[in-house]
Design a protein that fits this description.
single chain, mainly alpha, Growth Hormone, Chain: A, 2 domains, 18 helices, 0% strand, transmembrane, MFS_STP/MST-like_plant, membrane, MFS_sugar_transport-like, transport
């Protein structure tokens, strides 16, 4: 909860003066690279846990269960293992806890520091995982990865919102989502090729490959400027005005600057922000802020992207076929995000919500009917 993050446009709906300058575009693209680390881990984990050499080394019971159910109709539970679940879920638990700390760091020390911390922690986690000798090292590496993701996911969208001109804010924020989908696609491709390496050590390259997006994010964080909002929050108002003039390509930024200062002052004046969220006047915003991501998660899309190779393998696909199917899924996801970037500011967020929900609904109906038909036949 960093104060003064996103501010409303002035009355009339025209937005503040300012164009999408080359400097802002490049800055936002570099910042959005933080999505690569999240996307890469989403794509890499499911592929690695479907590789037999990885399971044989760290989860021999799961590997043996796989061998025992070859040819059996009950293939779903062959991945049922509390330790394997701990390996996959530890990242998200760590990211959840880290996001609370990250909000304080982002507010007090700036968005760049939070992004840099996220990149460094993610890089450390990738190194630990790639050199893992036992399950403890795997889980420790996952925790580092999770903390890094928690910092990046908290600070990058905020940074993009504060840097982007009002009328391009939607598209530039979705660039973060685009980098996530690119990370997923890249991870799926690497999993497919690394799985072909003889000797069964390709999983180390898959896990260690996370160092590459981490380094991109670290270098980008070091080169990025602070946002005007962050400078205002730290009392550097003159520098904030100059920064705002620079990124907007316009010297006439008084209206937006004054609104930023006012928003920061109002945010600072709030002594108990979490308690204030429960006030009656904030309930509509609080409801939407909770329900939208909650129901988005309930659609199961993140589960599909995370466990795609495992899911394909449990329904009968071979190892290579399941990894290639995950590549195809990641490619469709990436292309769909490009469509969203091109249409979000023209048609609005609500229309994207509706169209996305309808597409998932229409795709789920034939899938469920197919499953019912399969069960009736068997």
């Amino acid at each position: 909860m960093a104060g003064g993050g996103v501010i409303a446009p002035p009355p009339g709906g025209k937005g503040y003066p300012g164009e999408l300058t080359k400097k802002v575009l490049v800055t936002c693209i570099v910042a959005a690279m933080g999505g690569l680390i999240f996307g890469y881990d989403i794509g890499i984990s499911g592929g690695v846990t479907s590789m037999s050499p990885f399971l044989k080394k760290f989860f021999p019971k799961v590997y043996k269960k796989q061998e025992d159910v070859v040819g059996s109709s009950d293939s779903y539970c062959k991945f049922n293992s509390p330790i394997l679940t701990m390996f996959t879920s530890s990242l998200y638990l760590a990211a959840l806890v880290a996001s609370f700390l990250a909000s304080t760091v982002t507010r007090k020390f700036g968005r760049r520091i939070s992004m840099l911390a996220g990149g460094l922690l993610f890089c450390a986690g990738a190194i630990v995982n790639a050199s893992a000798k036992n399950v403890f090292m795997l889980i420790l590496g996952r925790i580092f990865l999770g903390v890094g993701i928690g910092f990046a996911n908290q600070s990058v969208p905020l940074y993009l919102s504060e840097m982007a001109p009002y009328k391009y804010r939607g598209a530039l924020n979705i660039v973060f989502q685009l980098s996530i989908t690119i990370g997923i696609l890249a991870a799926n491709l690497l999993n497919y090729f690394f799985a072909q390496i003889k000797g069964g050590w390709g999983w180390r390259l898959s896990l260690g490959g996370a160092v590459v997006p981490a380094l991109i994010f670290i270098i980008g964080s070091l080169s990025l400027p602070d946002t005007p909002n962050s400078l205002i929050e730290r009392g550097e108002r003159e520098e904030a005005r100059e920064r705002l003039q620079s990124i907007r390509g316009n010297v006439n930024v008084d209206e937006e600057f004054n609104d930023l200062v006012k928003a920061s002052e109002q945010s600072t004046a709030i002594k108990h922000p979490w308690i204030n969220l429960l006030e009656r006047k904030h309930r509509p915003q609080l409801t939407f802020a909770i329900c939208i991501p909650f129901f988005q998660q309930l659609t199961g899309m993140n589960v599909i992207m995370f466990y795609a190779p495992v899911l394909f393998k449990t329904i009968g696909f071979g190892s290579n076929a399941s990894l290639m199917s995950a590549v195809i899924t990641g490619l469709v996801n990436c292309l769909s995000t490009l469509v969203s970037i091109a249409t979000v500011d023209k048609y609005g967020r609500r229309n994207l919500f509706l169209s996305g929900g309808l597409q998932m609904l229409f795709c789920q109906v034939p899938l469920q009917n197919l499953q019912l038909f399969k069960n009736s036949v068997l």
